[in-house]
Fold each of these.
Amino acid sequence: MKRENWGSKLGVILAVAGSAVGLGNFLRFPVQAVKNGGGAFIIPYFISLFLLGIPLMWIEWTIGRFGGGFGHGTAPGIFQSLWRKNRFIKYFGVIGIFGPIVIFIYYTYIESWLLAYTFFPLRSDFSQISTKDQMLAFLQGYQGVVKNEYFSSILTAYLFFIITFGLNLLIVYFGIKRGIERVCKVAMPALFIFALILVIRVLTLKNETNPDWSPLNGLGFLWNPTFSSLKDANVWLAASGQIFFTLSVGIGVILTYASYLSKDDDVLLSGLTSASTNEFAEVILGGSIVIPAAFVFFGPSGIREIAQQGSFNLSFVTMPLILKSLPLGKIFEILWFFLLFLAGLTSSISLAQPAIAFLEDEFNLSKKKSVFIFGIVCFILSNLSVLFLSKGVVDELDFWGGTFALVVFATIETILFSWIFGMEKAWEEMHSGSDIKLPKIYKFIIKYITPLFLICILLFWTIQYAIPTFLLKNVILENLPFILMTRIILVIIFIALCILVKISWRKKGEKFEN
Ligand code: PFF
């Protein structure tokens, strides 16, 4: 079966940028920065960008295009193509399908809230809300955590979830060029325009009673450095974690997108362009919306509290309250939620693609069948997130899919590329068809610094977070059965994927392996 192709260079760059630009840019980044030393956070952040993020971006573009040449669009086949002699390496590649599935089953649920909230400003009871408590009650009612005057059941949330989920499937069903590329070509420019409008609106806010609470001082709050925070290893971990998450690297999705390139397409400049687009959307746009806005309204002490409460409160409670108090507030509220919805949508379709590509490439299934199987399985699994949100299930999925899978996968792919495949060949492969030539220093960085940095992160992170989480150290008793159930399901998914890999390679005959 002939594999699909991207329609244009701009299309693939926008699709990768679409995967990268997501909720992480507008919500996670500003919260992380405020919590981890303000302007000082940007130092480990940029170091991680240049030593981890961009190298991983190039690695994934390169190995994706390489594997695509052998008909493999996902990590099991790609890893096997890089290390033909080792029969086990493909099982490590399973992480690159597992991680995206796990993120997909909660990311689409959160995305569906954004779609719902795009319409809520039109509801009269929502328009009348004027306090934080009411806004929180509205959110919890919607999520089905409590029954109240706003919502009597989870039905509305479920309905929006089905619509969002269906929309994701529809886009991937239309394929790389006619689905993903087409949507990103419209959604990405739209998203940038919406974000720009919001930035301008926020930066021209005034607080008449407290003139000191200006947007400029709000930016200062985000950017003034507290250098002492650099001594804290957790700040470094947070910065590198943010880089992984925001660039969508280390999880298996970029390689799948890159597998639809042709052999002589450029990867280096395209990879760099998509990473730069993401950084612009994060540091410039994402940094200039929520923090300055919240600062103008709640001042320095309020904002610290808001940041501690995390991204969800910021987007679903604080921001609508701020925006609705402005002239034409409804329009800004709608713009805000629709912006986040588009950002989420272009990311979630990239999470769906690996599993679908796996079924198409390794089992020769049609697009229709692959999307159908993926849809049924993920729909059932998503109910974990929808029904047990308040039991900590989403956090658990985020930990294993969004953190654990990521750190391990990034380490494996880097070592595989620069040491097993070999740096000389790797360098040549990166530059084949390339529009730019990288400075030699990157050969050194990719071979030594990136893997070393990753191993340090892996070790530190294992001790600091993985072991305590594994031992259920911070789980409250009431949630325990749900957390254990989630873990058992995750183990089953992982084993099932390993079995599928085994079956497909056996069918093809291990000796003709490629
Ligand atoms: N990069 C996305 C964001 O910043 O929100 C999140 C994400 C999407 C992570 C896709 C990983 C991924 F594969």
Note: Residues 19-20, 22-25, 100, 103, 245-246, 248, 251, 253, 347, 350-351 surround 4-fluoro-L-phenylalanine (CB under 6 Å).
Amino acid sequence: MSRIEIMQGDITKIAVDAIVNAANETLLGGAGVDGAIQRAAGPQLLNECRGLGGCPTGDAKITQGYHLPARHVIHTVGPVWRDGKHQEHNLLQSCYRRSLEVAQANHLKTIAFPCISTGAYRFPKDQAARIAVATVSKCLKQIPEIEKVIFVCFDIKDFKLYEELLLLSEKSTVE
Ligand code: APR
């Protein structure tokens, strides 16, 4: 039974232990999925974020989920895409790894990710999807306590990218 799932939809509607937010280093909200999560969670989320003192790119911090169906939000800050020669790949990998480490440290079992950095931060979608699937697959081998990771793709393009990658990775593990 695979511990990785994909779905197309709105991450603010998903009832898991934690949804991951694609935030910025201030953690004080924004547009995109960050704006959607802040709106759905209600004003207490921003209040808690204010006390966190920001978050460096590639790292992750946890808050309560408040009015979200998810119990927690893990805020991570993806890299802004420049040219692929400024550690963008390593920093995006770090977002997925640190988010899973924070989930493990808080004894969470189910976590949902958006497509970090692929909106306003302009990370190429295909490269970001490959990094997401490869990093999560690798980390899950080291963190057996996490039972389920769901990639929540807002648009069909991302969904199809992840679907293809997961089919390939399942095929390779079977062969
Ligand atoms: N549910 C799931 N995914 C969503 C949702 C949603 N409700 N809304 C947007 N997305 C998807 C976008 O389609 C994109 O694939 O989230 C992905 C990430 O896009 P952004 O939200 O723009 O995040 P990012 O590219 O990491 O840029 C972060 O944008 O909103 C600001 O404060 C944020 O400065 C930060 C920057």
Note: The first strand starts at residue 4 and ends at 8.
